[in-house]
């Protein structure tokens, strides 16, 4: 067999390809391109302009940013609900004028003047909001009208009061502190911006009003249909927008202390540019405070930078316009292609070199030789159960299995013809185990670990574990709890097969064959859940060894069975027990003679084994051809093997013609019979075991002794 | 620029690197007529059907068989080695291509007819024979690189080394009509003197002039690999398609490194390659859509083998088709002839000669 180069092995060992897909699935990845632009702008002007990084320049820029950032946030909030506010500039000018008027002419104290101005500008915003939200006017036209009217009002007021204002001067240390001072060299306006931004971020991302605003922007009609108050929320967004403009006007007044006709002129264009550049979608529903701030910094650096480079007066708006065009272009392309890109790059195979499988040829003999011993399987519940991944029997010989409808179905002995829904959990019930008092613990794909007590109450045991450090996606939620067993001290050990795929996609994990799974331990004494072993290749089939010292588990795509010591001198370590399997092992359970059963859920195909060595081939395959055309492990036929504590295979049972019960994911020995389950089956099978089997042995007794 | 363009295409999966397979649509819409046809004649690997004096005969291994009065196979003659193609002339001559004995000619009683072979060339990998007239035999050699048994290797290596010969049986000399064909797998002489050849690896039928010039494509981008062509009673043709195209195979054809490793390490019957039958061993590659659910293999599941025969009209436009879909038995249709209102088909993968009632 050809070997793979060490370089390729190292590359796939240390380069985390799968992170790309995980990063793309994060919401904040939308900020990546604006952030890159920001870095470029800082780099460009930082090198072109002398003293760009000096403390004084940074302080000046930060002070101005305090005002501009607030206006950009004002713009962002209305954009998020699917609107547009062109009146921010006029409103800002109004705020500036009112502040100066109230302080200089009215002689109001600062603490009263600032809230008053914020309320006045909020009032302008409310008018916008009322017209747009409740009267359903167009946002563009309405705010254009407000822009003109408010500007006219400011001009008229200026005409009347500017003379009086220019001669008076307001003297207050608090006012000076806001306008000129700061804390530890950081200007006050910047501090105010940061505080407002933090509150805004929390409101927008972690509160119901914020989520509602997002939902309304995303789809107004759907939001209305689910009962959100669309009108009220839209109105509120414009009101908040107006208040933020007022606050920005206050800061502007504090900084410059003068009012002119050109105050806030063209600010709406800059703010709009900043909001869109930052990645806030003009269509609504996609935006954040961080995006608004990134945009604000870019726009301010560019406009100031162009001015300081001494270019002529038209070049500033020109640069801004071109950047806006680029931003809109990128925004559209990104929105359109992000999901496409994600679905293409999510599957990220890694390099696997599986050892040569043990022979299965009937002619060559050996414990794995093909035979027809499962041909005589008795079929239970044909077309009555769907997806019995695991089967289990209790002391009274009742047979339980899960179905893909989320039910636990119970068949009655001795003929197993009658059945009933024992309990309904939901999700996809997979592995099962009885604890000492006879409660049934079930791993439910998509939900977690559940318990059905003897009164048939469904109780959630656990659905999360500790989050792995440095993981990009939150892996604390259990996605695919697979099989479990219970240690003598009551701790429940269970496997989560993969953290990267949902229940219906589980075979795709085989294409990756990376260690995406883990063994998790739930301690009933403390109620805590923690991850015991990480980076396992589709861990599955958890089974407590006969001596109670170790947990046996299968690594399906690795075609091996491992032992995880939970007691004794080697506690906490994992060791290889059995490998070179010709197929993919699934559930493991105890046999009556001190050995173990393991289900082989599918067989390796040599063509796939070659592909496993070539992750690039599998990656391209996942991108180029449709999922149902992908090369898969052959999960249509499997077998049952029995092995001992030394890791030697004792025997195997096959359905050679694949006619009766070829697909096996689980088996339980019970009183001389072996019961079979398969995740894609519409049946349960049972087959009588040979004379070696103890006809009185049951799983419950093996774990918990005689029934009281 | 070309190198960059090629790299870009491979990186983005566009242009030559894109994997597209024509859908089974229109006249090729899947059905299960072929699969559900009554039980035919069980024969091991029947391959080439022909009409000898108006009665169907077919090859199976080294034997040439005909149907007895109760539909049982009756041996007509036994060739010295496995028969890879046969053809009958209107005069009752029977040309038989053998795997290791070249082309032999028999009369209708199974006696070897003397042919004055002047060139003494040993033809191997003969995929199809046809009489242009009573003296003129057309011979398709699938590949000059691989024996017929290694046809999957020939495809995976993307060989274009097929040859069309014309043999004058009277004078005994052979003319190379055309070469560098992509596995010619069926031939007949058109009334206008040109030859129609099915090129399997190019998935098309072409018309070749008697001087060897390719005169045009008659049908292109077939959804499977075409085999032999026979005339229909309605002036059209029956085209047998012996294996389906699949996106996975097309993709593997673009992956040189993987393909080489697979061919070196994996036994041919387990390759990702078109096959005459599939589902025999669990070592065969399986594709996602072929995962059985509730014990059922979906008929639309991706498959490496398929049963398909297409009726073309006189302008080589498909007008109807008969299918045996994924998971079916009658796969690997290598030839078809129409006789007495019935279509006779050889399912080489299904070990059966199928008789299909085609009166509509």
Write the layout of secondary structure elements.
The complex is a heterodimer of chains A (about 700) and B (about 350).
Chain A: H1 6-14, H2 18-24, H3 32-48, H4 55-80, H5 88-105, H6 110-134, H7 139-167, H8 173-179, E1 182-183, E2 186-187, H9 188-206, H10 208-218, H11 220-225, H12 230-256, H13 267-277, H14 289-308, H15 315-345, E3 378-380, E4 391-393, E5 399-402, E6 407-411, E7 419-424, E8 428-434, E9 440-445, E10 448-452, E11 458-462, E12 481-486, E13 492-496, H16 508-512, E14 517-523, E15 528-536, E16 539-544, E17 550-555, E18 560-565, E19 574-578, E20 583-590, E21 596-603, H17 606-612, H18 615-624, E22 631-632, E23 639-643, E24 649-654, E25 666-670, E26 673-677, E27 684-688, H19 699-704
Antiparallel strand pairs in A: 1-2, 3-27, 4-5, 5-6, 6-7, 8-9, 9-10, 10-11, 12-13, 13-14, 14-15, 16-17, 17-18, 18-19, 20-21, 21-23, 23-24, 25-26, 26-27
Helix pairs in contact in A: 2-15, 3-14, 4-9, 4-12, 4-13, 4-14, 5-6, 5-7, 5-12, 6-7, 6-12, 8-12, 9-10, 10-12, 13-14, 13-15, 14-15
Chain B: H1 2-12, H2 33-36, E1 41-42, E2 46-52, E3 55-60, E4 63-67, E5 73-78, E6 83-88, E7 94-98, E8 102-106, E9 126-131, E10 136-141, H3 151-156, E11 162-168, E12 173-181, E13 184-189, E14 195-199, E15 204-208, E16 214-219, E17 224-231, E18 237-244, H4 247-253, H5 256-265, E19 286-287, E20 307-312, E21 318-324, E22 333-339, E23 342-347, E24 352-357
Antiparallel strand pairs in B: 1-24, 2-3, 3-4, 4-5, 6-7, 7-8, 9-10, 10-11, 11-12, 13-14, 14-15, 15-16, 17-18, 18-20, 20-21, 22-23, 23-24
